[in-house]
Automatic annotation (TrEMBL):
The keyword Transferase applies. This is Glycogen synthase. GO terms for cellular component: cytosol. Residues 4-238 form the Starch synthase catalytic domain. It comes from the Bacteria. Belongs to the glycosyltransferase 1 family. Bacterial/plant glycogen synthase subfamily. ADP-alpha-D-glucose binds at K16. It catalyses: [(1->4)-alpha-D-glucosyl](n) + ADP-alpha-D-glucose = [(1->4)-alpha-D-glucosyl](n+1) + ADP + H(+). PANTHER family: ALPHA AMYLASE DOMAIN-CONTAINING PROTEIN (PTHR45825:SF11), GRANULE-BOUND STARCH SYNTHASE 1, CHLOROPLASTIC/AMYLOPLASTIC (PTHR45825).
Length: 481
Protein backbone atom coordinates (compact mmCIF):
# COMPACT_ATOMS: atom_id res chain seq x y z
CA UNK A 1 0.00 0.00 0.00
CA UNK A 2 1.32 3.46 -0.93
CA UNK A 3 1.14 5.87 2.04
CA UNK A 4 -0.79 9.13 1.57
CA UNK A 5 -1.23 11.92 4.11
CA UNK A 6 -4.53 13.80 3.91
CA UNK A 7 -4.45 17.13 5.78
CA UNK A 8 -7.56 19.07 6.71
CA UNK A 9 -9.08 21.31 9.35
CA UNK A 10 -12.11 19.04 9.88
CA UNK A 11 -13.12 15.44 9.37
CA UNK A 12 -16.46 13.68 9.77
CA UNK A 13 -17.55 12.31 12.22
CA UNK A 14 -15.09 14.01 14.58
CA UNK A 15 -15.54 17.69 13.67
CA UNK A 16 -17.69 19.18 10.95
CA UNK A 17 -18.87 22.58 9.76
CA UNK A 18 -19.63 21.60 6.17
CA UNK A 19 -19.07 19.23 3.28
CA UNK A 20 -15.27 19.39 3.59
CA UNK A 21 -15.49 17.15 6.65
CA UNK A 22 -17.59 14.56 4.81
CA UNK A 23 -15.10 14.39 1.94
CA UNK A 24 -12.06 14.09 4.21
CA UNK A 25 -13.77 11.40 6.26
CA UNK A 26 -14.67 9.35 3.19
CA UNK A 27 -11.41 9.51 1.22
CA UNK A 28 -9.42 6.83 3.09
CA UNK A 29 -11.97 4.10 2.43
CA UNK A 30 -12.44 5.28 -1.16
CA UNK A 31 -8.72 4.98 -1.92
CA UNK A 32 -7.93 1.76 -0.06
CA UNK A 33 -9.17 -0.52 -2.89
CA UNK A 34 -6.72 1.21 -5.22
CA UNK A 35 -3.65 0.48 -3.12
CA UNK A 36 -3.38 3.75 -1.16
CA UNK A 37 -3.23 3.81 2.62
CA UNK A 38 -4.51 7.25 3.69
CA UNK A 39 -3.67 8.72 7.09
CA UNK A 40 -5.64 11.83 8.02
CA UNK A 41 -4.00 14.69 9.93
CA UNK A 42 -6.33 17.04 11.81
CA UNK A 43 -5.95 19.66 14.57
CA UNK A 44 -6.39 18.59 18.18
CA UNK A 45 -9.67 20.34 18.94
CA UNK A 46 -11.51 19.66 22.21
CA UNK A 47 -13.85 17.30 20.34
CA UNK A 48 -10.88 14.96 19.85
CA UNK A 49 -9.96 14.84 23.55
CA UNK A 50 -10.73 11.13 23.85
CA UNK A 51 -8.64 10.22 20.80
CA UNK A 52 -5.78 12.33 22.15
CA UNK A 53 -6.03 10.71 25.58
CA UNK A 54 -6.06 7.14 24.29
CA UNK A 55 -3.73 7.63 21.30
CA UNK A 56 0.03 7.19 21.09
CA UNK A 57 2.42 10.15 21.02
CA UNK A 58 4.79 9.56 18.10
CA UNK A 59 6.53 12.93 17.85
CA UNK A 60 7.14 16.09 19.85
CA UNK A 61 7.81 19.63 18.63
CA UNK A 62 9.24 21.88 21.38
CA UNK A 63 8.69 24.90 19.13
CA UNK A 64 6.26 24.47 16.28
CA UNK A 65 5.86 28.04 15.02
CA UNK A 66 6.25 29.24 18.59
CA UNK A 67 4.17 26.65 20.46
CA UNK A 68 4.74 23.21 21.91
CA UNK A 69 3.00 20.42 20.05
CA UNK A 70 2.74 16.65 19.90
CA UNK A 71 1.76 14.29 17.13
CA UNK A 72 -0.72 11.69 18.39
CA UNK A 73 -1.47 8.53 16.48
CA UNK A 74 -5.02 7.20 16.82
CA UNK A 75 -7.73 5.45 14.80
CA UNK A 76 -10.89 6.62 13.10
CA UNK A 77 -12.77 3.38 12.66
CA UNK A 78 -10.52 1.24 10.50
CA UNK A 79 -8.47 4.21 9.26
CA UNK A 80 -5.28 5.73 10.73
CA UNK A 81 -5.70 9.17 12.29
CA UNK A 82 -2.97 11.67 13.18
CA UNK A 83 -3.76 14.54 15.55
CA UNK A 84 -1.72 17.71 15.99
CA UNK A 85 -2.08 18.18 19.74
CA UNK A 86 -1.19 21.84 20.32
CA UNK A 87 -3.42 23.10 23.16
CA UNK A 88 -2.22 26.70 22.79
CA UNK A 89 -3.66 26.71 19.28
CA UNK A 90 -6.65 24.39 19.30
CA UNK A 91 -7.92 23.73 22.84
CA UNK A 92 -10.41 26.59 22.83
CA UNK A 93 -14.01 27.19 23.78
CA UNK A 94 -15.61 28.24 20.53
CA UNK A 95 -15.80 27.18 16.91
CA UNK A 96 -13.12 25.67 14.72
CA UNK A 97 -12.38 29.00 13.07
CA UNK A 98 -14.21 31.57 15.18
CA UNK A 99 -14.78 32.48 18.79
CA UNK A 100 -18.17 32.30 20.50
CA UNK A 101 -19.01 35.72 19.10
CA UNK A 102 -18.46 34.53 15.53
CA UNK A 103 -15.22 36.47 15.01
CA UNK A 104 -12.24 34.78 13.39
CA UNK A 105 -9.59 33.71 15.85
CA UNK A 106 -6.92 36.42 15.41
CA UNK A 107 -4.17 33.81 15.21
CA UNK A 108 -5.80 31.60 12.58
CA UNK A 109 -2.71 32.18 10.46
CA UNK A 110 -0.52 30.57 13.13
CA UNK A 111 -2.99 27.77 13.91
CA UNK A 112 -3.22 26.51 10.35
CA UNK A 113 0.35 27.32 9.37
CA UNK A 114 1.36 25.03 12.25
CA UNK A 115 -0.88 22.31 10.85
CA UNK A 116 0.75 22.71 7.43
CA UNK A 117 4.26 22.82 8.90
CA UNK A 118 3.61 19.58 10.78
CA UNK A 119 2.30 17.97 7.60
CA UNK A 120 5.36 19.16 5.67
CA UNK A 121 7.60 17.64 8.33
CA UNK A 122 5.76 14.35 7.90
CA UNK A 123 6.11 14.64 4.15
CA UNK A 124 9.86 15.32 4.07
CA UNK A 125 11.57 13.14 6.64
CA UNK A 126 11.60 15.49 9.65
CA UNK A 127 9.39 13.12 11.64
CA UNK A 128 10.89 9.63 12.10
CA UNK A 129 8.64 7.01 10.55
CA UNK A 130 6.60 9.60 8.68
CA UNK A 131 7.17 8.53 5.10
CA UNK A 132 4.46 9.57 2.65
CA UNK A 133 4.50 9.48 -1.13
CA UNK A 134 1.68 12.03 -1.43
CA UNK A 135 0.47 14.83 0.81
CA UNK A 136 -3.08 15.87 -0.05
CA UNK A 137 -4.00 19.28 1.40
CA UNK A 138 -7.60 20.48 1.61
CA UNK A 139 -8.61 24.14 1.33
CA UNK A 140 -6.72 27.17 2.62
CA UNK A 141 -6.27 25.78 6.12
CA UNK A 142 -3.88 23.12 4.80
CA UNK A 143 -2.75 24.78 1.58
CA UNK A 144 0.60 25.98 2.96
CA UNK A 145 1.91 22.40 2.91
CA UNK A 146 3.27 22.60 -0.66
CA UNK A 147 4.87 25.97 0.10
CA UNK A 148 6.69 24.54 3.12
CA UNK A 149 7.83 21.52 1.11
CA UNK A 150 9.05 23.81 -1.66
CA UNK A 151 10.81 26.49 0.38
CA UNK A 152 11.68 24.79 3.70
CA UNK A 153 11.49 21.00 3.46
CA UNK A 154 12.86 18.51 5.95
CA UNK A 155 15.98 16.38 5.49
CA UNK A 156 14.41 13.66 3.36
CA UNK A 157 12.88 13.59 -0.11
CA UNK A 158 9.74 15.68 -0.32
CA UNK A 159 6.39 14.04 -1.01
CA UNK A 160 4.43 15.05 -4.09
CA UNK A 161 1.54 17.37 -3.29
CA UNK A 162 -2.10 17.84 -4.21
CA UNK A 163 -4.25 20.80 -3.17
CA UNK A 164 -8.01 20.43 -3.38
CA UNK A 165 -10.11 23.58 -3.56
CA UNK A 166 -13.45 22.98 -1.86
CA UNK A 167 -14.47 26.64 -2.12
CA UNK A 168 -12.38 29.34 -3.80
CA UNK A 169 -14.21 32.05 -1.84
CA UNK A 170 -12.25 31.17 1.30
CA UNK A 171 -8.57 31.86 0.70
CA UNK A 172 -6.82 32.57 4.01
CA UNK A 173 -5.27 35.99 3.40
CA UNK A 174 -3.22 37.58 6.21
CA UNK A 175 -1.18 40.72 6.71
CA UNK A 176 2.46 40.64 5.65
CA UNK A 177 3.52 41.08 9.27
CA UNK A 178 2.85 37.38 9.92
CA UNK A 179 5.40 36.23 7.34
CA UNK A 180 8.40 36.46 9.67
CA UNK A 181 6.80 33.97 12.07
CA UNK A 182 5.96 31.35 9.45
CA UNK A 183 9.42 29.80 9.43
CA UNK A 184 9.96 30.37 5.72
CA UNK A 185 13.06 31.83 4.06
CA UNK A 186 12.93 35.44 2.95
CA UNK A 187 12.80 34.55 -0.75
CA UNK A 188 9.45 32.74 -0.28
CA UNK A 189 7.76 36.14 0.01
CA UNK A 190 7.45 36.76 -3.71
CA UNK A 191 4.85 36.73 -6.43
CA UNK A 192 5.30 33.06 -7.33
CA UNK A 193 5.58 32.15 -3.64
CA UNK A 194 3.34 33.08 -0.72
CA UNK A 195 2.94 36.82 -1.37
CA UNK A 196 -0.55 37.88 -2.40
CA UNK A 197 -1.71 41.49 -2.65
CA UNK A 198 1.01 42.60 -0.26
CA UNK A 199 0.18 39.97 2.35
CA UNK A 200 0.37 36.20 2.73
CA UNK A 201 -2.19 34.13 0.82
CA UNK A 202 -2.41 30.59 2.15
CA UNK A 203 -4.52 29.17 -0.68
CA UNK A 204 -2.62 31.12 -3.29
CA UNK A 205 0.68 29.79 -1.92
CA UNK A 206 -0.57 26.24 -2.20
CA UNK A 207 -1.83 26.73 -5.74
CA UNK A 208 1.55 28.14 -6.78
CA UNK A 209 3.54 25.25 -5.32
CA UNK A 210 1.37 22.12 -5.54
CA UNK A 211 2.19 19.41 -8.04
CA UNK A 212 -1.51 19.02 -8.82
CA UNK A 213 -4.64 21.05 -8.13
CA UNK A 214 -8.11 19.61 -7.95
CA UNK A 215 -11.55 21.05 -7.44
CA UNK A 216 -14.60 19.09 -6.41
CA UNK A 217 -16.34 19.07 -9.80
CA UNK A 218 -15.27 19.37 -13.45
CA UNK A 219 -17.55 22.34 -14.11
CA UNK A 220 -16.13 24.26 -11.15
CA UNK A 221 -12.62 23.52 -12.42
CA UNK A 222 -13.57 25.35 -15.61
CA UNK A 223 -15.51 28.12 -13.88
CA UNK A 224 -12.64 29.22 -11.63
CA UNK A 225 -10.58 30.19 -14.67
CA UNK A 226 -12.92 33.16 -15.04
CA UNK A 227 -13.40 36.26 -12.94
CA UNK A 228 -16.94 35.53 -11.78
CA UNK A 229 -15.77 32.39 -9.98
CA UNK A 230 -11.98 32.69 -9.60
CA UNK A 231 -12.17 35.23 -6.77
CA UNK A 232 -8.99 36.96 -7.92
CA UNK A 233 -7.05 33.73 -8.52
CA UNK A 234 -8.43 33.03 -11.99
CA UNK A 235 -5.16 34.11 -13.64
CA UNK A 236 -3.15 31.66 -11.55
CA UNK A 237 -5.61 28.85 -12.27
CA UNK A 238 -5.53 29.61 -16.00
CA UNK A 239 -1.72 29.64 -15.97
CA UNK A 240 -1.67 26.25 -14.27
CA UNK A 241 -4.52 24.81 -16.33
CA UNK A 242 -2.55 21.67 -17.21
CA UNK A 243 -2.30 20.84 -13.49
CA UNK A 244 -5.98 21.50 -12.65
CA UNK A 245 -8.70 18.86 -12.73
CA UNK A 246 -12.16 18.42 -11.27
CA UNK A 247 -13.28 15.29 -9.43
CA UNK A 248 -16.86 15.16 -8.19
CA UNK A 249 -17.29 14.33 -4.52
CA UNK A 250 -19.02 11.12 -3.56
CA UNK A 251 -21.25 10.30 -0.62
CA UNK A 252 -20.79 7.52 1.89
CA UNK A 253 -23.56 4.92 1.53
CA UNK A 254 -22.81 3.69 5.03
CA UNK A 255 -24.03 7.08 6.30
CA UNK A 256 -26.46 8.20 3.57
CA UNK A 257 -28.69 5.30 2.58
CA UNK A 258 -32.47 5.45 3.07
CA UNK A 259 -32.67 1.65 3.25
CA UNK A 260 -30.51 1.53 6.37
CA UNK A 261 -30.66 5.05 7.85
CA UNK A 262 -31.59 4.75 11.55
CA UNK A 263 -32.53 8.44 11.69
CA UNK A 264 -35.61 8.05 9.49
CA UNK A 265 -39.12 7.38 10.72
CA UNK A 266 -39.39 4.74 8.00
CA UNK A 267 -36.69 3.17 5.87
CA UNK A 268 -37.22 2.53 2.17
CA UNK A 269 -35.51 1.95 -1.15
CA UNK A 270 -36.24 2.63 -4.79
CA UNK A 271 -38.78 -0.23 -4.85
CA UNK A 272 -40.64 0.89 -1.73
CA UNK A 273 -41.03 4.64 -2.21
CA UNK A 274 -44.54 4.59 -0.74
CA UNK A 275 -42.89 4.21 2.67
CA UNK A 276 -41.57 7.77 2.34
CA UNK A 277 -45.07 8.86 3.40
CA UNK A 278 -44.24 8.20 7.04
CA UNK A 279 -41.18 10.40 6.80
CA UNK A 280 -43.22 13.09 5.05
CA UNK A 281 -45.75 13.05 7.88
CA UNK A 282 -42.92 13.33 10.41
CA UNK A 283 -41.62 16.44 8.61
CA UNK A 284 -45.10 18.00 8.65
CA UNK A 285 -45.32 17.43 12.38
CA UNK A 286 -41.77 18.61 13.16
CA UNK A 287 -42.15 21.84 11.16
CA UNK A 288 -45.80 22.55 11.89
CA UNK A 289 -46.85 22.16 8.26
CA UNK A 290 -50.51 21.63 7.46
CA UNK A 291 -51.17 18.54 5.33
CA UNK A 292 -51.92 19.45 1.71
CA UNK A 293 -51.66 17.84 -1.71
CA UNK A 294 -48.78 20.07 -2.80
CA UNK A 295 -45.06 19.28 -2.53
CA UNK A 296 -42.90 19.89 0.51
CA UNK A 297 -39.75 21.74 -0.53
CA UNK A 298 -36.81 21.71 1.82
CA UNK A 299 -33.67 23.79 2.26
CA UNK A 300 -30.67 22.47 4.21
CA UNK A 301 -28.11 25.22 3.81
CA UNK A 302 -26.10 28.10 5.08
CA UNK A 303 -28.30 31.16 4.67
CA UNK A 304 -25.94 33.25 2.55
CA UNK A 305 -25.72 35.16 -0.71
CA UNK A 306 -23.59 32.41 -2.27
CA UNK A 307 -26.40 29.91 -1.68
CA UNK A 308 -28.95 32.21 -3.37
CA UNK A 309 -30.98 32.50 -0.18
CA UNK A 310 -31.62 36.21 -0.78
CA UNK A 311 -33.49 35.31 -3.98
CA UNK A 312 -35.28 32.35 -2.44
CA UNK A 313 -36.71 34.47 0.35
CA UNK A 314 -38.15 36.82 -2.30
CA UNK A 315 -40.17 34.02 -3.94
CA UNK A 316 -41.63 32.34 -0.86
CA UNK A 317 -45.02 33.97 -1.33
CA UNK A 318 -45.02 32.57 -4.88
CA UNK A 319 -43.99 29.11 -3.63
CA UNK A 320 -46.95 29.07 -1.26
CA UNK A 321 -49.32 30.43 -3.92
CA UNK A 322 -48.28 27.56 -6.20
CA UNK A 323 -49.36 25.08 -3.52
CA UNK A 324 -45.94 24.35 -2.08
CA UNK A 325 -44.71 24.25 1.49
CA UNK A 326 -41.22 24.80 2.86
CA UNK A 327 -39.25 23.14 5.68
CA UNK A 328 -35.95 24.98 6.19
CA UNK A 329 -32.95 23.99 8.27
CA UNK A 330 -30.03 26.42 8.29
CA UNK A 331 -28.38 29.49 9.70
CA UNK A 332 -26.22 32.31 8.46
CA UNK A 333 -26.76 35.96 7.64
CA UNK A 334 -28.84 37.54 10.39
CA UNK A 335 -30.88 39.57 7.92
CA UNK A 336 -31.76 36.47 5.93
CA UNK A 337 -32.65 34.54 9.06
CA UNK A 338 -35.11 37.29 9.98
CA UNK A 339 -36.52 37.43 6.45
CA UNK A 340 -37.29 33.72 6.59
CA UNK A 341 -38.89 34.16 10.02
CA UNK A 342 -41.07 36.93 8.61
CA UNK A 343 -42.14 34.65 5.75
CA UNK A 344 -43.00 31.88 8.20
CA UNK A 345 -45.11 34.34 10.20
CA UNK A 346 -46.95 35.33 7.01
CA UNK A 347 -47.62 31.70 6.12
CA UNK A 348 -48.23 29.63 9.26
CA UNK A 349 -48.65 25.98 8.41
CA UNK A 350 -46.99 26.48 5.05
CA UNK A 351 -43.45 27.52 6.02
CA UNK A 352 -41.57 26.01 8.95
CA UNK A 353 -38.05 26.86 10.14
CA UNK A 354 -35.27 25.46 12.27
CA UNK A 355 -32.53 28.06 12.57
CA UNK A 356 -29.28 26.23 13.27
CA UNK A 357 -27.87 22.91 12.16
CA UNK A 358 -29.00 19.44 13.17
CA UNK A 359 -27.36 16.45 11.44
CA UNK A 360 -30.11 13.92 12.29
CA UNK A 361 -32.79 16.36 11.15
CA UNK A 362 -30.96 16.87 7.84
CA UNK A 363 -31.33 13.13 7.19
CA UNK A 364 -35.03 13.23 8.04
CA UNK A 365 -35.59 16.16 5.69
CA UNK A 366 -33.98 14.30 2.80
CA UNK A 367 -36.08 11.25 3.64
CA UNK A 368 -39.41 13.08 3.95
CA UNK A 369 -39.41 16.23 1.80
CA UNK A 370 -40.36 15.96 -1.85
CA UNK A 371 -37.78 18.32 -3.33
CA UNK A 372 -34.69 20.18 -2.13
CA UNK A 373 -34.02 23.75 -3.30
CA UNK A 374 -30.37 24.65 -4.05
CA UNK A 375 -30.32 27.97 -5.97
CA UNK A 376 -26.58 28.59 -5.46
CA UNK A 377 -24.79 31.33 -7.37
CA UNK A 378 -21.73 29.10 -7.31
CA UNK A 379 -21.33 25.62 -5.88
CA UNK A 380 -17.95 23.87 -6.16
CA UNK A 381 -19.61 20.49 -5.78
CA UNK A 382 -22.44 20.41 -3.29
CA UNK A 383 -23.42 17.35 -1.31
CA UNK A 384 -27.02 18.08 -0.42
CA UNK A 385 -28.16 17.45 -3.99
CA UNK A 386 -26.37 14.08 -3.88
CA UNK A 387 -28.13 13.21 -0.64
CA UNK A 388 -31.39 14.29 -2.28
CA UNK A 389 -30.79 12.02 -5.28
CA UNK A 390 -30.01 9.08 -3.01
CA UNK A 391 -33.15 9.68 -0.89
CA UNK A 392 -35.64 10.45 -3.65
CA UNK A 393 -35.79 14.11 -2.60
CA UNK A 394 -35.73 15.65 -6.06
CA UNK A 395 -33.07 18.41 -6.43
CA UNK A 396 -34.11 21.78 -7.84
CA UNK A 397 -30.77 23.41 -8.58
CA UNK A 398 -29.00 26.24 -10.38
CA UNK A 399 -26.85 25.26 -13.36
CA UNK A 400 -23.42 25.82 -11.81
CA UNK A 401 -20.43 23.85 -10.56
CA UNK A 402 -21.13 20.41 -9.19
CA UNK A 403 -24.88 20.98 -9.36
CA UNK A 404 -24.62 21.07 -13.15
CA UNK A 405 -22.43 17.95 -13.13
CA UNK A 406 -24.72 15.79 -11.00
CA UNK A 407 -28.36 16.71 -11.76
CA UNK A 408 -30.01 15.99 -15.15
CA UNK A 409 -32.82 18.41 -15.93
CA UNK A 410 -36.29 16.93 -16.41
CA UNK A 411 -36.82 18.48 -19.82
CA UNK A 412 -38.90 16.64 -22.40
CA UNK A 413 -35.93 14.90 -24.02
CA UNK A 414 -34.44 13.71 -20.73
CA UNK A 415 -37.81 12.47 -19.50
CA UNK A 416 -38.43 10.64 -22.77
CA UNK A 417 -35.00 9.03 -22.50
CA UNK A 418 -35.65 8.06 -18.89
CA UNK A 419 -32.61 9.85 -17.46
CA UNK A 420 -34.04 12.97 -15.76
CA UNK A 421 -33.14 13.33 -12.07
CA UNK A 422 -34.17 16.88 -11.11
CA UNK A 423 -34.97 20.43 -12.15
CA UNK A 424 -32.11 22.68 -13.33
CA UNK A 425 -32.50 26.41 -13.85
CA UNK A 426 -30.20 28.97 -15.48
CA UNK A 427 -29.25 32.00 -13.42
CA UNK A 428 -30.26 32.90 -9.90
CA UNK A 429 -33.02 35.42 -10.32
CA UNK A 430 -36.55 35.78 -9.05
CA UNK A 431 -37.91 34.81 -12.44
CA UNK A 432 -35.70 31.75 -12.93
CA UNK A 433 -36.41 30.42 -9.46
CA UNK A 434 -40.18 30.91 -9.74
CA UNK A 435 -40.07 29.10 -13.08
CA UNK A 436 -38.12 26.21 -11.55
CA UNK A 437 -40.55 25.91 -8.62
CA UNK A 438 -43.48 26.06 -11.02
CA UNK A 439 -41.97 23.25 -13.10
CA UNK A 440 -41.31 21.17 -9.99
CA UNK A 441 -44.86 21.67 -8.71
CA UNK A 442 -46.36 20.69 -12.07
CA UNK A 443 -44.14 17.61 -12.30
CA UNK A 444 -45.08 16.62 -8.75
CA UNK A 445 -48.76 16.70 -9.74
CA UNK A 446 -48.02 13.94 -12.27
CA UNK A 447 -47.21 11.32 -9.68
CA UNK A 448 -46.04 8.68 -12.14
CA UNK A 449 -43.63 11.12 -13.81
CA UNK A 450 -42.40 12.35 -10.43
CA UNK A 451 -41.73 8.82 -9.26
CA UNK A 452 -39.70 8.10 -12.40
CA UNK A 453 -37.51 11.13 -11.68
CA UNK A 454 -37.12 10.01 -8.05
CA UNK A 455 -36.22 6.49 -9.14
CA UNK A 456 -33.66 7.70 -11.68
CA UNK A 457 -31.86 9.70 -9.00
CA UNK A 458 -31.91 6.85 -6.50
CA UNK A 459 -30.46 4.42 -9.04
CA UNK A 460 -27.57 6.73 -9.93
CA UNK A 461 -24.19 5.87 -8.42
CA UNK A 462 -22.86 8.76 -6.37
CA UNK A 463 -20.77 6.65 -4.05
CA UNK A 464 -17.03 7.19 -3.83
CA UNK A 465 -16.30 4.33 -6.23
CA UNK A 466 -15.59 6.39 -9.35
CA UNK A 467 -14.24 9.40 -7.46
CA UNK A 468 -11.80 7.18 -5.57
CA UNK A 469 -10.66 5.68 -8.87
CA UNK A 470 -10.03 9.16 -10.30
CA UNK A 471 -8.02 10.29 -7.28
CA UNK A 472 -5.98 7.10 -7.54
CA UNK A 473 -5.24 7.85 -11.20
CA UNK A 474 -4.14 11.34 -10.22
CA UNK A 475 -1.81 9.99 -7.54
CA UNK A 476 -0.33 7.53 -10.03
CA UNK A 477 0.25 10.37 -12.51
CA UNK A 478 2.41 12.06 -9.87
CA UNK A 479 4.63 9.02 -9.64
CA UNK A 480 3.04 7.30 -6.63
CA UNK A 481 3.43 3.54 -6.93
Amino acid sequence: MTPVLSVASECYPLVKTGGLADVVGALPAALAPHGFAVSTLVPGYPALAEQIRTGTVVHHWPHLLGVEARLVEARLGEQPLLILDAPALFARDGGLYTDRGGKDWPDNWRRFAALARAAADLGSGAVPGGEFAIVHAHDWQAAMVPAYLRFAPGPGPAARTVVTIHNMAFQGWFDASVFHDLGLPHHAFRLDGVEYYGGVGFLKAGLESADAITTVSPTYAREIRHGDFGMGLEGLIAARADSVSGIVNGIDPAVWNPATDPLLAARYDVDSLDQRAANRAAIEQAFGLAPTEGPIFTVVSRLTWQKGMDVLVEVLDDLVALGGRLALLGSGDAGLEQAFRDAANRHPGRIGLRIGYDEPLSHRLQGGADAILIPSRFEPCGLTQLYGLAYGCVPVVARTGGLADTVIDANEAARAAGVATGIVHDGVTRESLIHAITRATALFADRAAWRRVQSNGMRADFSWTESGRRYARLYHSLGAA
